[in-house]
Each structure stands twice: as structure tokens, then as C-alpha cells.
Amino acid sequence: MRWASSPDTVLKPVETSKRRKIVAGIPGSTKSKAKRKLIVDGSCEGESPPQKKQRKKSPPPPPKKQRIRLEAADCSKRKSHFVLSTLIDGNAVDLGAQVSCRNNKNEVKTGIVKREGICCQCCNKSFSLSGFEIHAGSKRHMPAASIFLENGKSLSECCAQIMKDKRTRRRKKETAVVEEEEDANDLICSVCREVGDLLCCDRCPSSFHYSCVGLEELPEGDWYCPFCCCDICGRIEDDNGETESTAPLLSCHHCQLKFHDPCLKKKRSAKFRRKSVKGEWFCSTECGTVVSKLQQLVGKPVPLGKGSDLTWTLLRWTEDDSGSSEKLNAAIDILHDCFEPFKDDFSGTDIVEDLIYSKGSDLRRLNFVGFYTIVLQKGDEVACAGNVRILRGKMAELPLVGTRSQYRGKGMCRLLMNELEKQLKRFGVEKLVLPAAHSVLDMWRDTFGFSELTAEDRSSGGCRFLEFEGTVTCQKLLQ
């Protein structure tokens, strides 16, 4: 299993000028917009060039608190991660509630809900969800969707309700944060993730060191960061001088880069621009093909060999998908169990949940659109889970991966990684990157075949990916 730590430096902004907002990092704390989008980058390191006015230098940040849980003191006291326990703890199903499962011959088996499984009332034996479905004679192979409460709701619908309730609570909290600090800007550089004197974008909450965006001094007038400009011409307005109101910037549903339609027409023929049936816009056939192939895999369990009780599944949260809710809930529990819960200082939200929910943000380094969850199951139980996103340039990232306590040391992470790498190769991905803590760096090198990502590799890749403080970015060539 891999462990990572999260940023723990807490900052607050100072007064800004009317013409250009500049943030000098000093100790404090803040919250900000929750509706922001981001992709965490980790490229160059640089310090601010000399300013026109003398500014007070930021004091050194406080010592970083490493938020890593290496080992649980008493595994026997861990909360059970079975689907039934999640439903019971979430008040969606009562302990001792009666459930039923109907087979194709319209015969019904009833049972009583317990934390360890369902106790059948005809034989008094305890079964897992899939075991009870088989015992009832159902051949749907969808246990959570085949087992119903007395009120007619399936266990899948109950799991989906828990997920929706979580989203509702998060949105209420995020709305309150937005109303509290509508004009807040990020307090670290979106390129190197360091504090200092920062130049703020006039269109989004991103902030940058001058040197990290190739500037030597404070620009005149409004300034827009690279994330807000056309990826081809590098400007807000197009070549004809038309502003965004007359030449709107289109955002690719997959890579999240922005383009002027006229600029795209000049660089690529019209056949490279397409929309899906859902109205999603893609800047190229490559981006559209990746999303189409991913959607074909989502929600379909794949056995690891004939007769094996191990399966892997690619998941993505959607409001109307109740079938994957129990697995996503289990993935959240596993990753929270493996990693001390950590929140981004700017948004105040839980990074693990943001990744599972593929949360978008106006702040590019926190934009988790495009992330999928991959899980490995043994029978009914999710044993291992991770978050993966395919980037441009034939690269993919895996920021978090974790194994349930009772399955650690049994090769579950290895099995999940093997299946993931196999699928990424089919997508044409040539390189997989991930952040690894120093304490497990040798494991990722020796056992999984990763190596440290060099500065040259980073600059040539052209992609920005999620990184954490206290970790080393590693890469593995897949092709």
C-alpha cells in the first residue's frame, strides 16, 4: 500500500491593490470558493523576481505535519466496511430489518439484516449479499439491487441515498464558503505549490509566482493565467480581436483545456471537433475516444480469471447511478482508513471525497473532473481502491491507492495495479505517475517498477498532475 501526506501549511492573504491583486504568503488560515476547478501541478520551482515595491518577505512556513497513518494500533477495533455496516451506520437500514430476494420463478427468500451478513429465516444460516442472492436462486448477479427491504427499496437505492445525502451536506457547506469569501484567491502558486509574492489571475482564483509563468515584472492592465486562455493562441480574445462575449472559449470535457472555435478550425480540420450525444464537447478525437472507451467500462465487474472470486470494476459517481454507490462508499472508507483525512487549506474540502466525486473547481489545481475510481473486490467486499485519471500526452495519474486492513500483505494492491496497467495500455497510455511518500519509495521502485520523475521528464510531458507535500513523484513506462 502507498502512503502520502498532504499540505499542512496554513496561510492568509494580505491587502491587495486595486489594479492587481498580489498575495504575500504569511501564516494564518483561510477558506474559499468551493465551486472552483483545479488540477494540481508540480512542475517548476521558482521564486518571485524583484518587485517594483519592497514587500515584506514571507516568514518560513511552520513545520509540516505529516498526515500519514502507517499502522492501526488495534485492527480488531476497526469499523466494519461491509455494505450492510455502511447502510446501518448511515441510518439507511435498521439492524434486524427484514429483507427479501426473489428468484426467476417468483419464489422468495427472507432474511434478517445483521452487521456480518443476512441471516436466512428458512435455514438460520448467515450469508453475504451475493451468497444470499445465490441462496434465493436469483441469477441477476446484482445482490444489492436484488435484495429489498419491506418498504420496497433495494439496498442499492439505500446506498445511493447515503451518497446523495453526503453530496447535499457538502454543497450546503460549499455554498456558505462561497458567500463568505467570494473574491478570495489561492494562497499558493498553482505551478510550484509554494508560497510567496503571488500574481493573481483576474478571471479565476489561481495565483502564480512571476517566474513560474515567465514574467519578470508586474503586467499592466488585466492579466489572465494560462488556464483561462485559449490553448492555441494563448489569449482571451481570438485573432480577430473578438472578446469572449463574441468568441466564447470552449472547454474540452476530457482535458479541460480551453479553445477559441476559430483557433481550433485553423489548427485542425472540422472532423476533429465533435460532440457526444450528451452534449459534451471535445477538442479532438483523441479526447472523445478516451471518454467513450472509459464509459464502456464503467460499472461492469471483470473477473480476474475463470472461477475466481476476485473482480475489478471501474466506477464513476453520477447522481442517477445507484448501482455503484455501495462500492464508492467502501472506497471512501478504505482511503480514509489508509490516509489521515486531509483538507485543502484553500477550499476546506476533503481531498479523498473530492476525488471520488470527480469534483470540479474554478481553481485548476483542485479540478478533479476526469477522475475515476477503480476497485478490487473479493466476493462482496471491496478489498482495494484507487483514483485514476487519463491525461493528455498519453499519460495517466494515480494519486491515491489503498488496501483494506485485513487484506494487506496479500498481494491485493499488486493485482489491482496489474489490471490497471493492462487497461491503460489498451488506451494507448505510455506513462503512469503517482506521488509516493519517502518511507515507501523503495517499495514502489523495487516491487512495482517505478522510478523518480525527473525535471526533464516533467517539462517534456506537458501535463499537470496531483501531488502532495512530503511525497516524491514517480513514473512507470507502460509501453
Automatic annotation (TrEMBL):
The keyword Magnesium does not apply. InterPro entries: Acyl_CoA_acyltransferase, GNAT_dom, IDM1_C, PHF12, TDBD, Znf_FYVE_PHD, Znf_PHD, Znf_PHD-finger. Residues 21-68 are annotated as: Disordered. It is found in: Nucleus. Keywords: Metal-binding, Nucleus, Zinc, Zinc-finger. GO terms for cellular component: nucleus. One of its GO terms (molecular function) is acyltransferase activity, transferring groups other than amino-acyl groups. It comes from the Eukaryota. GO terms for biological process: regulation of transcription by RNA polymerase II. SMART domains: PHD. Residues 186-231 form the PHD-type domain. Gene3D superfamilies: 3.40.630.30, Zinc/RING finger domain, C3HC4 (zinc finger). Residues 318-475 form the N-acetyltransferase domain. PANTHER family: GB|AAC80581.1 (PTHR46309:SF12), PHD FINGER PROTEIN 12 (PTHR46309). This is Uncharacterized protein. It comes from Linum tenue.
